[in-house]
């Protein structure tokens, strides 16, 4: 009697649990909802105050809430007007005048005028500004801005010292860190701005639920035309596999961070589409130029000549990428198109090693990160391919692995012989790749190879103030040639950006710079 | 070992010893006072552990910052000061009720914890409810017919439950689930309400679809988490009830002609409850530990996943705050367990 009763209770409980898990009706609202777009990505945004953001996931939200003075066109790295309708600069490049678009309002209703622009740049560039702080990122991009003045309500003047090449200055202004901030909101509550951002962008920030979602709503009065969606929801799902499952179950409309393997699966399914675009990134192999025998350029070049990046693209990126000829992707200004296609030339490599007088087999410790990165989705496999290639010329590499959190401090401190690393550009300008990755000034920082060549550094610094495009191009082409000869960093791959989407998604385009803008996206049924 | 006749041994002395300092309130105050050194110790361990991890808060934050900016950040966060100084200043601030500001989001830790706490509370309570219901039922089933098929079956389940790591079970459940479920509610839906408990808030919203969605999302992580205490409760109920059923008063009850269910549940189980309640209270600690894993597997936005994020991003104030809160919750739970003895067993109620 009792047994039966208790048994019945348990059975009932188990059944109801099974029922909860088994039934799978999509909520009616989700199935028909053609105005809410759900975008899944690998992690949550950390902070939405533009110059404080450092992670791509914060930038993705900032891209839709804020506008800059200028922007990259929808599908190229051409500069086009945004909050600034037009602009001109003095012949010496030191005085820039921007004329702002009329009647643009922040989401809180306050006008976006010259004062807001002045406020934004003073905060960014003046260390004494009350809202400046050491964790504002990319400040080096704006360090030449000495003075910003409002000439009238819609005219702003920038004084630069030294002068910056027009293309470089404008592309620095497209970067998310230079988005125009709402002075009233930021001053009223500086702490809150990072979780309740107010901009002029196509979407209005609505709500942030940590680790769950960020909800944006359409800005119906957006000055460049209101978005087609009414709601945009960003959802963090850490595991790639779990995110893919959510997409395939129709719970997401699109997702970022598609692994090459998942890309194949999405591409093969009907009702889903895979979007591809060369990414503004480079994955490279860095040698520590301060450690023997890697301080000898011949040894580094020999190792470079042993490698076959095409194998990395086909094996580790499943073809979803391109072989890197230079340290920056091809769509960037001054990319050296005369660089030879990287293919292994192992006899030449052996000769170089002989000339350098190293005894074979040469031992090498190759450090790789444990976690997938945009440019190396399978770091360990990539390290294995490199190990195999190096062996063919008599370099015996042992692999060492380190978690990403410690990887950056370790490599910057020079605690390695050779390591895999990469860079995702902030701007589509050679300065952002060549100077950052190989300039002597950035040793102990982003230049992990500790390559301290004066001529390269000088050329890079000169490039920052060369106003003539042709001369500037020549400077950077020379730098790329020199880097090929010295091989402190061996460029390997440019991984494609991959986004998986349901086929009902229309108008979603991947921008070369990785910008995620949803203004033109709509949903069909 | 948890026999009911030994229950006196685990009942706190204040229930038994007569004198001025008896009564519930002084006891509660004394217990609360004794938690202070515990919390100081917890804070010490957390500060020490974070010091031992390589890297500094500045370097954790800034992949794109320069050396100088990183150093400035470290200084701003007080990372360059000696360990003991960091520890003492932290304790002083906590004593004033200030948990500090987390480094990652630059928000008050107290606010972040307040936002995250209901999720963990809801998950833990749901898991506890499942474990208590199922665990007691299984235990009673096993005790009524010892060494029968039911007994072996239940105890096998309990053994599997106690040995299987909760994150592994969580992953298995996710694979088995026909619908991929993460977080607390469907992405397109939102739960608004006064409590932060989605079950309650969605019920208040009178939207059956929303409530159902919340239940679905809660079910898997709650079951996964429930296996930790469930196994212990089942085994304990069995042992304790078996012993109680051999007592004289049970024979008397049967002799009076009472129905078997009344005998077992009213006379037997009630007397067997004290060790079960004690164990349940202690299991809360295991639950909070298990919550870190379960929440991470199911992306449950609670304190557990908060601890995980804070630890991996070396967000010291966030980590300290969260661990302190867990320590406080744990101590309070034990206090409640002690107080509940009086309710269950009138013999130990203070007079």
Low-confidence parts of chain B: 1-11, 14-20
Greatest interface by residues involved:
A-B, 61 and 66 residues
Oligomer: heterodimer
Total individual domains of chain A: 3
Low-confidence stretches of chain A: 24-30
Globally, the shape of chain B reads globular
Short note summarizing the structure:
Chain A has 525 residues and is of the alpha+beta class. Helices cover 32% and strands 22% of the residues of chain A. In chain A, strands 1, 8, 9, 10, 11, 12, 13, 14, 15, 16, 17 and 18 form a twelve-stranded mixed sheet that branches. In chain A, strands 4-5-7-6 form a four-stranded antiparallel sheet, covered by helices on one side. A two-stranded antiparallel ribbon of chain A has the order 2-3.
Could you explain the architecture of this structure?
The complex is a heterodimer of chains A (525) and B (351). Chain A is of the alpha+beta class and 525 residues long. Chain A has 3 domains: 35-65 and 201-278 and 497-523, D-Maltodextrin-Binding Protein, domain 2 (3-Layer(aba) Sandwich); 70-185, Dipeptide-binding Protein, domain 1, CATH 3.90.76.10; 281-495, Dipeptide-binding Protein, Domain 3 (Dipeptide-binding Protein, domain 3, Roll), CATH 3.10.105. Chain A is built from 16 helices and 20 strands. The longest helix of chain A is centred in the N-terminal third of the chain and has 21 residues, at 2-22. The model of chain A is unreliable at 24-30 (pLDDT under 50). Chain B is mainly alpha-helical and 351 residues long. Chain B has 2 domains: 22-97; 109-312, Orthogonal Bundle (MetI-like fold), CATH 1.10.3720.10. Chain B has 14 helices and no strands. Chain B has helices spanning 13-16, 24-52, 57-61, 67-76, 83-95, 109-144, 149-163, 166-176, 198-204, 208-245, 248-255, 260-298, 303-312, 316-344. Chain B starts with 12 loop residues before the first helix and ends in a 7-residue tail after the last helix. Chains A and B meet through helix 1, helix 2, strand 10, helix 7 and helix 13 of A and helix 3, helix 4, helix 6, helix 10 and helix 12 of B.
């Amino acid at each position: 009697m009792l047994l039966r009763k208790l048994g019945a209770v348990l059975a009932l409980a188990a059944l109801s649990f099974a029922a909860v898990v088994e039934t799978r009706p999509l909520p009616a609202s989700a199935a028909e909802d053609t105005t809410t777009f759900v975008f899944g990505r690998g992690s949550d945004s950390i902070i939405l105050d533009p110059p404080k953001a450092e992670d791509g996931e914060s930038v993705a939200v900032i891209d839709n809430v804020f506008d800059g003075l200028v922007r990259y066109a929808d599908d190229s790295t051409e500069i086009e007007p945004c909050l600034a309708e037009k602009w001109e600069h003095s012949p010496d490049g030191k005085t820039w005048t921007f004329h702002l678009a009329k009647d643009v309002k922040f989401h809180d209703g306050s006008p976006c005028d010259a004062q807001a622009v002045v406020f934004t740049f003073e905060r960014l560039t003046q260390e004494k500004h009350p809202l400046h702080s050491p964790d504002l990122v990319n400040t080096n991009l704006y360090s030449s801005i000495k003075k910003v003045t409002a000439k009238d309500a819609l005219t702003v003047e920038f004084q630069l010292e030294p002068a910056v090449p027009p293309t470089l200055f404008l592309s620095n202004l497209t970067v998310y860190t230079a988005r125009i901030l709402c002075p009233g909101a930021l001053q009223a509550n500086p702490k809150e701005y990072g979780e309740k951002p107010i901009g002029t962008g196509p979407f209005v920030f609505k709500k942030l639920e940590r680790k769950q979602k960020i909800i944006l709503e359409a800005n119906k009065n957006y000055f460049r035309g209101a978005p087609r969606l009414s709601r945009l929801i960003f959802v963090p799902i850490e595991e790639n596999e779990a995110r893919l499952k959510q997409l395939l179950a129709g719970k997401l409309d699109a997702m970022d961070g598609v692994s090459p393997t998942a890309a194949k699966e999405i591409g093969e399914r009907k009702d889903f589409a895979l979007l591809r675009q060369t990414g503004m990134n480079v994955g490279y192999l860095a040698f520590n130029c301060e450690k023997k025998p890697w301080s000898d350029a011949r040894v580094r070049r020999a190792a470079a000549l042993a490698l076959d990046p095409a194998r990395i693209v086909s094996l580790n990126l499943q073809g979803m990428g391109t072989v890197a000829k230079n340290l920056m992707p091809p769509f960037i200004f001054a990319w050296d198109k005369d660089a030879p296609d990287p293919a292994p030339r192992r006899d030449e490599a052996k000769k170089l090693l002989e000339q350098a007088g190293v005894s074979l087999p040469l031992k090498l410790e190759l450090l790789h990160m444990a976690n997938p990165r945009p440019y190396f989705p399978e770091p360990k496999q990539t390290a294995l391919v490199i190990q195999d290639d190096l062996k063919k010329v008599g370099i015996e590499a042992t692999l060492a692995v380190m978690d990403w959190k410690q990887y950056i401090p370790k490599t910057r401190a020079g605690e390695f012989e050779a390591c895999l690393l990469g860079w995702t550009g902030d701007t589509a300008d050679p300065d952002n790749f060549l100077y950052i990755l190989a300039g002597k000034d950035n040793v102990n920082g982003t230049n992990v190879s500790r390559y301290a060549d004066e001529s390269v550094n000088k050329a890079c610094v000169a490039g920052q103030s060369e106003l003539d495009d042709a001369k500037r191009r020549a400077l950077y082409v020379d730098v790329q040639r020199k880097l090929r000869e010295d091989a402190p960093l061996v460029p390997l791959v440019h991984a494609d950006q991959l986004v998986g989407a349901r086929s009902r998604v229309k108008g979603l385009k991947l921008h070369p710079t990785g910008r995620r803008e949803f203004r033109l996206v709509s949903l069909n049924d | 070992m948890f026999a009911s006749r030994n229950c006196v041994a685990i009942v706190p002395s204040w229930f038994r010893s007569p004198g001025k300092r008896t009564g519930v309130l002084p006891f509660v105050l004394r217990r609360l006072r004794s938690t202070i050194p515990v919390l100081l110790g917890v804070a010490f361990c957390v500060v020490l552990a974070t010091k031992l991890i390589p890297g500094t808060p500045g370097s954790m934050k800034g992949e794109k910052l320069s050396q100088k900016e990183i150093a400035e950040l470290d200084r701003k966060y007080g990372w360059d000061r000696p360990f003991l100084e960091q520890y003492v200043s932290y304790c002083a601030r906590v004593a004033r009720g200030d948990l500090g500001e987390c480094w990652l989001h630059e928000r008050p830790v107290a606010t972040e914890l307040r936002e995250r706490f209901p999720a963990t509370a809801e998950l833990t309570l749901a898991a506890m409810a499942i474990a208590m219901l199922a665990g007691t039922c299984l235990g009673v089933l096993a005790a009524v017919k010892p060494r029968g098929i039911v007994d072996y079956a239940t105890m096998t389940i309990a053994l599997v439950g106690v040995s299987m790591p909760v994150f592994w079970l969580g992953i298995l459940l996710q694979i088995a689930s026909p619908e991929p479920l993460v977080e607390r509610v469907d992405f397109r839906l939102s739960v608004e309400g006064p409590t932060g408990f989605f079950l309650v808030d969605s019920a208040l919203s009178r939207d059956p679809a929303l409530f159902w969605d919340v239940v679905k999302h809660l079910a898997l992580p709650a079951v996964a988490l429930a296996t930790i205490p469930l196994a212990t409760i089942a085994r304990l109920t069995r042992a304790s009830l078996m012993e109680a059923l051999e007592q004289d008063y049970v024979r008397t009850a049967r002799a009076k002609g009472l129905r078997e269910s009344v005998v077992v549940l009213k006379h037997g189980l009630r007397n067997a409850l004290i060790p079960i309640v004690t164990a349940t209270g202690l299991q809360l600690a295991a639950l909070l530990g298990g919550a870190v894993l379960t929440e991470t597997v199911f992306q449950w936005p609670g304190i557990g996943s908060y601890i995980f994020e804070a630890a991996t991003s070396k967000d010291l104030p966030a980590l300290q705050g969260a661990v302190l809160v867990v320590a406080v919750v744990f101590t309070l739970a034990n206090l409640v367990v002690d107080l509940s003895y009086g309710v269950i067993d009138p013999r130990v109620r203070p007079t």
